[in-house]
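User: I'm writing a tutorial on reading structure tokens. Could you give me a worked example: one chain, its sequence, then its tokens, then a sentence or two explaining what the tokens reveal?
Assistant: Sure. Here is the example chain.
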Amino acid sequence: MTTENGGAARRSRLVWLLAAQTALMVLLGLWVTRVAVDHWPLTLEDGLSRAFAAHRSPVGNGVTAGLSLLASTEGVIVVTLLCVAALLALPPAPRWAEAAFLGASVAVQSAVFLAVTFFVERPRPDVPQLDGAPPTSSFPSGHVGASVALYGGLAALALSRARGPRRHLAGCLLLLVPPAVGLARIYRGMHHPSDVLGGLLNGAVTLLVLGSVFLSGRGATDGRTPHRASGDGAAAPARAPAGRSRRAGGRVVVVRHPHGCPDALAAEVRARLRRHGHTDQRWTSTTADRPCGSLAEECAAGGVVLVVACGGDGTVRVCADVVAGTGIPLAVVPCGTGNLLARNLDLPSDPATALDEALAGGDFGIDVGRVEGDGLPATRFTVMAGAGFDATMVRDASPVLKAHLGWAAYAVAAARHLRDPRMRLDLRLDGGRRIRRRARMVVIGNVGALQAGVELLPRARPDSGRMEVVLFDPRGAAGWLAAAAHLAARIARRPAPAPAPGGPVSVAAGSLEYFSAARIEVRFARAQAREVDGDTMGEGARLTVDTEPGALRMRLPRAPGSAAAPSRVPDGRSRAARTAPTTRIARTAQL
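And here are its predicted structure tokens:
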């Protein structure tokens, strides 16, 4: 629990710091462009740009072109991927923390840069420009910020992780790259000097924030699951099982995502299952054509006492679609990109430990949503379904970045769609009148927390018998800042009280509007991108969601929302498992 609480605290600190960094850079940019631009020393910038342009030479043009290429989007991505791969592949062991620090620094700096350019508009210097100008604001310099995140990050790793006298030379040379890139961008007429200083600041703050999360108090890691020493000095697992699971000895079907669940983790899962008495294991792998493998056939044959989903939310969703309503419990080994269901059910982030604790727990019923639409066959989901901004973010997230950065890859994709147009939609709740709205995003959720503990749907409960709906519609810079501040303030808070049916709740100056219903119908004026539990479902103009209360039995360490592990009763079931249906019905009655 100490490790889990420490991880949650780091994630919470990260989100707060990044929100503060973004706000700082936006305010600085607005000050530069609206207040200081007509005062000394910024009044000298135009003359400096003209002086550089007047003294250009073929040699200078060539050198600065090389520096610009070194800090270009393509150059930064290639160098980052090579360095991350080297950190993970070179002996003596994978350096996971260092690789995450470097990759996340580059990605986060880019996301903050794009967010700032959404609010700050500044034309480029009025001189002949040697490079094509992208459609972003001149403030801050993206090239300079990216070079600080990448080469400054490499310098930090060289100085703090490397050994030998040459690390100082390497660190100094790497630290010279960002200012050299800044001079090159001024020389080529692409930025004002204050834009370069803004890029240097953005990159440096990013390194400080990410370093405090990934590197502070850590040495190099080999990526292996931590163990604690037993009395005889042998390594023992961090948590021993509390006892065998209920109905141990029956047939267990394990659905494995081949990329999310590598061979080492698969071997650990087999061992943990055997330790809890599950020796009859049937393994099946997911494919594009068969996303849950042969699970449906195994369940139809009978005799299955437990299904284990080894993967992310997409793998859990397709497994839940098969076993919901059958009474067969589902256990989760969270090894995907988001793992939102596992996070919301308070499972440990370590996959093997999550399985171990679940097998020592009991069975609890949770709701599932049944979603369908035009071109979208009916399917169940356990986390969220949505359309608009979140769906385009999921659709356009780079698979390469997802593999190396995890959920941070979604932030990079989200930054590309900040200026997407709002949607016109009609919302109908539990067969009532149609509600007309405009929004950038609509999300229908069974649970409420996103990555880093952000509570998008603070009143969502997986056993409430209802779904929560949020319409996300920030307008202008003030709306985006109000929405960001509201969501940041909800990090790591206890969930809000269960909502009563009826009218909407609007917060953050109208940027977020909440509803609650068992049946939700959404119609869009034009086809929109849609997603279900992190899987893109194609564009369409309709989404209909029905709640199936308590349809999915989950093998969990404790009841959803409970702080204590379930106590055993004589018949082998947990006490919480026996009372869960009554509790859920009582909660539904209160609604």
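What the tokens reveal: The radius of gyration is 26 Å. Confidence is low (pLDDT under 50) at residues 1-6, 218-245, 492-502, 563-591.
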